[in-house]
Design goal:
It is built from nine helices and no strands. It is globular. It starts with a helix and ends in a 21-residue tail after the last helix. The model has no long low-confidence stretch (mean pLDDT about 95). It has one domain: Hypothetical protein, domain 2 (Endonuclease III, domain 1). Helix 2 crosses helix 9. It is an all-alpha fold and about 180 residues long. This is DNA-3-methyladenine glycosylase I.
């Protein structure tokens, strides 16, 4: 499962609102947990959060929160559930200013890291710190610098595949 995700999805560009919202939400749920846990639960997350449709999730109320807290298929953390609902509302509010995907992709650095070993792969960057600050100012929660760096990696904004990896440069974003 992890190898398939790494080889076919991780690091490839995601530029649509729903796709970025889903990845942002899943990265927030992953905070403090293993990515394997989140990836294994992704189908349940998609079902529980209406396919990560921001318009639907933004309308979730108390009954939905209780439903989600009772859903053993997802991570049942009230703060992360509340953050996802609030982040859907913040996503909608960004539409008049270009949208979530445009805001996140605006954090693309001038150059991408070029790690040769796993120890050289960064977990934050000046851009992820700035993105976290910008998103928090726009009403987002659970969007710290490390989480935003992971999002930037996942959707192709930075390429942290190791130099020499068969995936290095595969996003087409970085040569």
């Amino acid at each position: 499962m992890l190898r398939d995700y790494y080889d076919t999805e991780w690091g490839l560009p995601v530029r649509d609102e729903r796709g970025v919202f889903e990845r942002l939400s899943l990265e927030a749920f992953q905070s403090g947990l293993s990515w394997r846990t989140i990836l294994a639960k992704r189908p349940a997350f998609r079902a529980a959060f209406a396919g990560f449709d921001p318009d639907v999730v933004a309308g979730f109320g108390d009954a939905d929160v209780e439903r989600l807290l009772g859903d053993a298929g997802i991570v049942r953390n009230r703060r992360k559930i509340d953050a996802t609902i609030g982040n859907a509302r913040a996503t909608i509010a960004l539409r008049d200013a270009g949208g979530l995907a445009e805001l996140v992709w605006a954090a693309r650095p001038a150059v991408t890291p070029a790690p040769r070993t796993a120890a050289e792969v960064p977990t934050t960057s000046p851009e992820s710190i700035a993105l976290a600050k910008t998103l928090r100012a726009a009403g987002f929660a659970h969007v710290g610098p490390t989480t935003m760096h992971a999002l930037m990696e996942a959707i192709g904004i930075v390429d942290t595949h190791l130099v020499g990896s068969h995936r290095r440069g595969s996003s087409g974003v970085w040569a």
